[in-house]
Amino acid sequence: MAILLLSTEACHLCEMAQQVLVHAFDQPKIQTLVKQHKIDVYMQDIIDQPKWLDLYGEKIPVLFDEDSGLTLEWPFDLNATVSWFEKLYAVTGSEAR
């Protein structure tokens, strides 16, 4: 499963979101999910996709799963991030890639 962290250059909030993700992946709930399903998080500059720029230009950073369409818009904290990943796995179930 590939998750995108939609961001842009010189974005202080995006750097904060990266730190939230680091802490989220230290959580036992997320570690269990990662053991069950491969997950990769990629930084993606919204400038590269005009559609994303239109949709999320004022909302970045945004966690985005292209397969399900689920997003988590800033501001998000550790608890919101863990809950979003749990929801994502509940929606994608065994189809997680």
Quickly give the CATH architecture: 3-Layer(aba) Sandwich
Mean pLDDT: 91
State the end-to-end distance: 4 Å
Which H/E pattern describes the elements?
A: EHHEHEEH
Number of helices: 4
What is the CATH fold-level name? Glutaredoxin
What is the H level of CATH, i.e. the homologous superfamily? Glutaredoxin
Would you kindly provide a brief summary of this structure?
With 97 residues, the chain is of the alpha+beta class. The protein has helices at 12-24, 28-36, 50-56, 78-92; strands at residues 2-7, 40-45, 62-64, 71-73. The protein has a single domain (2-11, 23-86), classed as Glutaredoxin (3-Layer(aba) Sandwich).
Describe the protein in words.
The protein is an alpha+beta fold and 97 residues long. It has a single domain, classed as Glutaredoxin, CATH 3.40.30. It is built from 4 helices and 4 strands; from the N terminus they run E-H-H-E-H-E-E-H. Strands 2-1-3-4 form a 4-stranded mixed β-sheet, covered by helices on one side. The longest helix has 15 residues. It starts with a strand and ends in a 5-residue tail after the last helix. The relative contact order is 0.25.
